[in-house]
Amino acid sequence: MLRIHLRRLSTMQSVPKNTTTNYPQEFVKFLNGSHSPYHAVESMKSVLLKHGFKELDERDGWNGKVEHKGKYFVTRNSSSIIAFSVGGKWKPGNPIAITGAHTDSPTLRIKPISKKTSEKYAQIGVECYGGGIWHSWFDSDLSIAGRVFVKDRSTGDTVSKLVDLNKPLLKIPTLAIHLDRDVNQKFEFNKETQLLPIAGLAKADQTPSESKDDATFSSLQSIVERHNEDLIKLIAEELGLPSESDIEDFELILYDHAASTLGGLNDEFVFSGRLDNLTSCFTSLHALVLAADTNIEEEHGIRLMASFDHEEIGSSSAQGADSNFLPNILERLTALKADGTDESDPLSRSWLLETSAKSFFLSSDVAHAVHPNYANKHESQHKPLIGAGPVIKINANQRYMTNSAGLVLVKKLADRAKVPLQLFVVANNSPCGSTIGPILASKTGIRTLDLGNPILSMHSIRETGGSADLELQIKLFKAFFEDYSSLESKIIV
């Protein structure tokens, strides 16, 4: 097992707590700067760095780099992130308080070969990612964001850069009612041929003027051959590249260009895409920032938040919740030692197992708020309301991981923080979604509970959440980080 000797910090600089933070406004800023999972992680990194967290790299050894009372984060694939603070009295086998969320949302992603023309329109080939409400994407002004791999001419390396074109570029037009009189009765479409955005009017010749020297071999067509030439030019201009040929490849997604905003007569709503699940990324991030230094000298545990990519497609990837990302970080952290215990110590192998048995995982994903026009879709006694606090999600078939022991724990935390809670079970005649909770519970054996803030129109291009619910969830997560290690031994299972 990896051995890292932990040094104790003699002093710890803390960022002053800002008790007047307007979380709804901060959340809207976060959403408008996080149009892709890569941008979301970058936004979270900037907050962590501002509050004194240090970045670690999975490629490096952490020996001597992680200290008691220290604050750290690590990313994988630039689309998943784990951040944590180490208690002043941490030792292997002690508990870790963990929150989990995901950075991805249902969207349309540009295909590897996307150049299309039809009826003198330039079009962009897209692929459905996740289970979106795809009819909501019609007639929206769409833009493009993601990451681009480019040649660094000074070093010869290939590096990734974030790009957000942030202007209305694409449109998936609906068919006029005059040509489809039944559209208001049943809106059906072919996702391959009719969920296809237009990008402009096709030019007479879109063939790139590239040299076809027989001596030059390329295993794939170039970027400008596979994609719309004007789109490639826009990306190159946005990144300040000398030439479009400097672009090696990219992963780009479409998003609703209409800005995220507060709405409702009293700003009680947040209108935006990606509330599922940047809501929980935002609340867990700010809760950890607030709790990271609180009584950290006496803390026996570790306070940790994780946000994973690819939840919407099952989490089975190198950076998803079903990967080894969190287990690997837990293994590294449970190897942190304050003394020089010999590596041959046979008891060292149980540290991770002991920590897992004592830890708790709050799996946080948004919940279904009751819909005023479809209230009969909800179980009659379980109708979560926007603005009424976090929703504890329960399912007898273990689609959610909540059990009574976990519920007792969260209720104690919520009572301390004065945060109202709601309960949700799906009606017996309705399907039930799932979360990263069951995945990580089965992978790690850590006790888990599922909860989240209620929203409407989940998986639409434009969802609706509650502005007041943001601070309530932050307060609950803050109490979890600060109080879990003292509470966990008092709930006997």
Automatic annotation (TrEMBL):
Its Gene Ontology biological processes? Answer: proteolysis
Keywords for this entry? Aminopeptidase, Hydrolase, Metal-binding, Metalloprotease, Protease, Zinc
Top enzyme class, one word, equals hydrolase
EC number(s) per entry: 3.4.11.21
Q: Which SUPFAM superfamilies match?
A: Aminopeptidase/glucanase lid domain, Zn-dependent exopeptidases
Q: Which Gene3D superfamilies does the UniProt entry name for this protein?
A: Aminopeptidase i, Domain 2, Zn peptidases
Establish whether keyword Protein transport is in the entry. no
* UniProt KW Protease keyword: yes
Q: Which GO terms describe its cellular component?
A: fungal-type vacuole
The protein's required cofactors = Zn(2+)
Catalyzed reaction equations: Release of an N-terminal aspartate or glutamate from a peptide, with a preference for aspartate
Q: Pfam families attached here?
A: Peptidase_M18 (PF02127)
A GO molecular-function descriptor: metalloaminopeptidase activity
Q: Which family is it part of?
A: Belongs to the peptidase M18 family.
Q: Which PANTHER family match?
A: ASPARTYL AMINOPEPTIDASE
Specify the protein name.
aspartyl aminopeptidase
Its taxonomic path starts at: Eukaryota, Fungi, Dikarya, Ascomycota, Saccharomycotina
